[in-house]
Amino acid sequence: MKKLILSVLLATSAVPVAALPAMAAPAAQPWADRSLDAAARADLLVKAMTFDEKIQMVHGYFPPLAKPAKKMGMIPSAGHIPGIPRLGIPTLRESDASLGVANQIEQRKGDTATALPAGLATAATFSPELARAGGVMIGAEARAKTFNILLAGGVNLTRDPWNGRNFEYLGEDPLLAGVLGGEAIAGVESNHIVSTVKHYVLNSQETGRHVLDARIGEQALRESDLLAFQIAIERGRPGSVMCAYNKINGHYACEQDALLNGVLKGDWKYPGWVMSDWGAVHSTEKAALSGLDQQSGQELDKAIYFDKPLRAAIKAGRVPQARLDDMVRRILTGVIASGLMDDPVPATPQPIPLDDHADVAQAVAEKGIVLLKNEGELLPLARTARKVVLIGAHADVGVLSGGGSSQVRSTGGAPVEIPLTEGEAASFARVTWHASSPLKAIKAALPGADVRYVDGKDPAAAAAAARDADLAIVFAWQWQTEAQDTETIALPDDQDALIDAVAAANGKTLVVLETGGPVLMPWIGKVPAVLQAWYPGQRGGEAIANILTGAVNPSGRLPITFPASASQAPRPEPVGLAQLKAMQAAKAAGATSNHGVSVGVESFPVDYQEGADVGYRWYEKTGQKPLFPFGHGLSYTRFTYGKPEATGGAAPTVSIDVTNSGARAGDDVVQVYVQGGADAPTWRLAGFARVSIDPGRTQRVTIPLECRTFARFDTAQRGWVVDGGPRRFAIGRTAIDHVAEGTITLAADRMQP
C-alpha cells in the first residue's frame, strides 16, 4: 500500500516546467515567451526593470523583525522579497524546510505541517526514490501554504559526530549525500517552487559558526564537501545556493570569490543565484564582487548592505552596474527555471492531503531505521509476547525531534515541549516531541499483550518493572539542535546507568536510540539488540512498532560511522568550545544577541586534517575500528551475493546477483567501493543500489560507478583525472565488510571541474 501511495504522489506532483504549454508572449512582455530558456527570459526582464526595482530584488526582509511586516503582507516566516506586479515577478515568500515546512516556536499560530524524519534517516534509506518523495511532499505543502522558496537541500558532510546539525544532513559520504540531496531538491522543485542547496560550504560545526575559519586544501575540498554539492546541483538543479556563516581559508563563505565566482559560477556554470544565510553578510562591495547575489534576512545582519550601501557603491563605480544586473538576472533565472513565474503559488492556503503525506514520512522512517544489533534473533518481537515494558524518553506520548530552523510543528501537535533558557538556540528552538506514541502503536500491534510504560527516571524502579517482561525496551535519547553542538556524544541524564540496570534485570533488553547521530554505547555488550531510530518524524511511533513486530523488515544502513570512543574522531570535541564558554561566562550578566547571532567570539581556525578522508575513510586511514561502520545495518532475512562482474572503460559498472536466502521478503543495499589512486588509496563508495527481493529469489543488479569518487582533482590543470589501468573494487555489506572483491580496468580520462 505504501509503495502505491508513494508512486501516486510522485506521479501527481506538479508538471515539469518543460511540459507546460507554450504561450505566445504579449508584445509588451517578451519575457513571457516560454519558448525561450530561463536565462534569456530573465535577461529580457532585467532590461525592463528600473534601478529601484533591481535593488528591491537583491535584499530580503526577515518578517519577525521587519518594520513594515504588516503593511507589506508578510507571512511570519524566514523571508520576504516583494514582487513587481507590473512585470509579473512574484513576491518571494521563503520558509525553512529541511524536514518539512517549518514553523519554529509557532510563529503562525495553529499552522502545522508534515514532519519527515531526520535527514540522516533519509540518508539511511539509501533510496533516491524516497528522498525525492520527501521533497515532493514538502514542496507540495509549501505551495499549498503559499510559500514559493524553500530553504531546504542540506548536504553538508558529517565531519564530526557531535555537530548539532548532523541530523538535518545526509551523512559523511559525498556520493550518498549528493545523490539523495539532489533528488530531494528535484522533488521540491517539481511543485514549481524554488529549493536551495545549503550551506555552501564547510558549515560543519555549530560552535562559533559565525566566525570560525574552516581550513582545508583545494584538492581535499573538491574531493569531499564540494563533490557532494556538485552532484546535488547536477541532479536537483536548485534555483538557489545558500552560502554559509563560516569563513573558508580566511574569507567569509558569502565573500569567498574562489568558491562563488570561481567554482560555483565558473567551473560548474551554475546559472541560479547565491543567497546568504540569515546573518551571514559582512560587507557590500566585497560580497557583491565575490559572487553574493542576495542578502537574506537583512535584519539579522549588522547593516542592510544591499540597499543604500549598494546603491552608493554602484553610483560611485565601485560595484559595476553590470554586476547588479547579473545579480537580478540570476535570481529571475532560478525563479523562471523552477516554473514559479509561469505557475505562481495560490493566493490563499489550499487543502493538503495530510494522511497521504504522513504515509510518506512513515515510509522514510521505516526504511531508514537501522537494526544495529540483534543477538539470538531477539527481534522481531514474537506475537506470543505477553508482557512488554517500555522505558524512558517520553515513549508513552511521542518521539523526539531535532531542533533549530528545521523544526516542524507537526500535524498532531507537540505533547512535550521544553524551552531553552540560554544560548544562541534559545530564541528559535525548543526540545520537542512529535505526537506519535510508541506505547500506543505497540499496544495496537500486540493487542493480546500487556504493554506498559515507566518513565525511567529511577533506574531501580525501571529494572523492577522490566524484570519479568518478555521484552524490556529502553528508549534512549539525545537532543541536538542548530546553533549548538553537543559537548559529548555520551547519552545525557545518566541513561547509560538506566540501560545497565534494566539489562542486568532482564536479559531480553532492547535499546531504541532516538538521536541525531552517533552516541557512545558502553553497555553494548550487555544488551542483545539495538535499534537506531534517529528522529523518526511524526509517524515515528508507528514506524518503530512495525519494525519491532516484524510488520516491516528493517533495511536501513548507517550513512555515518559510529565511533567506539570520542577519541577515534578527528576532533574529540567541538573546536572553539572553550572560547565560547569563556564568552558566555563573561557576558552572563546582560548579554544580548541579534536573534541568535554570536556576540563577542573571536574568529578561530578549524583545521580539517583529515582532508578528503571524511568519515569511514578517516577510520581506514588511521587504522581504527569503529563501533559500527558506515553502511552497516541488519535485516530479518539473509542476502547472499554471487560473483561480481565489472565493465571498465570510461563508464564503468559492476553487476552482481543478489539472493534473498531467508524466509522473509526484504530490502538490501548493495554497496560498491573502489580504491582511490596511489596518492589516496582509501576505499570510497562509488555506487549503490537498494533492491527489494522476495524470499528464495535472485535479482541481477547493475550499478554504474561515479568516476569522480575515485578520481583525483588536479588543481594545476583544474579538472578531474582518472588514471587508467586496473583498480580494486569491492562489494561491501559495510565500508569495511567486503564480501567480494575484484579488479576493474579503467580508461584514462579527464573531466571538467
Keyword list:
alpha/beta; TIM Barrel; Rossmann fold; Immunoglobulin-like; 3 domains; 6-stranded mixed sheet; 19 helices
Q: Can you walk through the features of this model?
A:
The protein is 26% helix and 20% strand. By secondary structure, it is an alpha/beta fold. The protein folds into three domains: 35-103 and 114-338, TIM Barrel, CATH 3.20.20.300; 369-552, Glycoside hydrolase family 3 C-terminal domain (Rossmann fold, 3-Layer(aba) Sandwich), CATH 3.40.50; 637-751, Immunoglobulins (Immunoglobulin-like), CATH 2.60.40. The protein has a six-stranded mixed sheet. It has a six-stranded mixed sheet with strand order 10-18-17-16-11-15, with helices on both faces. It has a four-stranded mixed sheet with strand order 8-7-5-19, with no helix packed on it. Strand 3, helix 6 and strand 4 form a beta-alpha-beta unit. The longest helix has 18 residues, at 321-338. It is globular, with a radius of gyration of 25 Å.
